[in-house]
Specification:
Layout: H1 3-16, E1 22-26, E2 29-34, H2 39-48, E3 56-64, E4 78-86, E5 91-98, E6 106-108, H3 117-128, E7 131-133, E8 162-167, E9 172-177, H4 188-191
Parallel strand pairs: 2-5, 6-7
Antiparallel strand pairs: 1-2, 3-4, 4-5, 8-9
Length: 204
């Protein structure tokens, strides 16, 4: 581990102690995993403790671990992952918390700690269905308010049978059967056996 990461690692161990569920390095950055019950309180410490000073939340996203690792994953399905920045100490940190309930994924909102979490949490709610308790305006941000389901979940259907459009007569969004004919989107070189000859040239 690089000396700079080692200093951050040691500071996290010293400050957070038993709140750390897991702490490891990946892609030149530390990932701190905390339990859902400690998520909000840990965020407050990460921001305010003088040895850490993570003043900025630069990103937050939802993750669906369904079928992760070729189906070998046996942990909780949904998580929120936050990316933090300490300008004072020039440190970055990835923080992950898993939702305890796969059927109704819930985590505390981080808005009171980092107001920039607002739209990020709305996006995670919209696309993954993660509910952030304490969020003042948790509603969809990318899909229509009447949209059914959460399109970034691994089990969300790839091909739909309905489409939506704005109807000026009804002055609202309506759903109707898909009007575009299905088409093959797999490249021929993948779906057709012997598509190219032995020298790699395309057949006529």
């Amino acid at each position: 581990m690089a000396p700079k990461l080692q200093r951050l690692h040691d500071a996290l161990r010293s400050v957070l102690g038993d709140r750390i569920a897991k702490l490891g390095e990946r892609l030149g950055e530390l990932t701190l995993e905390v339990k859902a019950a400690d998520y909000s309180a840990t965020a407050q410490v990460l921001r305010d403790h003088p040895d850490l000073q993570f003043q900025q939340l630069i990103d937050l996203c939802g993750v669906d671990y369904n079928a992760y690792g070729d189906g070998k994953w046996d942990g909780p399905r949904f998580a929120a992952v936050a990316h933090l920045l300490s300008v004072e100490r020039n440190w970055r940190l990835r923080v992950r918390a898993f939702c305890p309930d796969n059927e109704f994924p819930v985590l505390d909102s981080l808005i009171e700690v980092w107001p920039s979490a607002n739209w990020f949490e709305r996006e995670a709610f919209d696309l993954f269905g993660i509910v952030f308790t304490g969020h003042p305006d948790l509603r969809r941000i990318l899909t229509d308010y009447g949209f059914v389901g959460h399109p970034f979940r691994k089990d969300f259907p790839i091909f739909g049978t309905v489409e939506m459009r704005y109807d000026p007569d009804q002055q609202r969004v309506i759903y109707q059967p898909v009007t575009i004919d299905p088409r093959e989107i797999v490249p021929r070189i993948v779906r057709e056996e012997n598509y190219a000859d032995s020298e790699g040239f395309r057949k006529g």
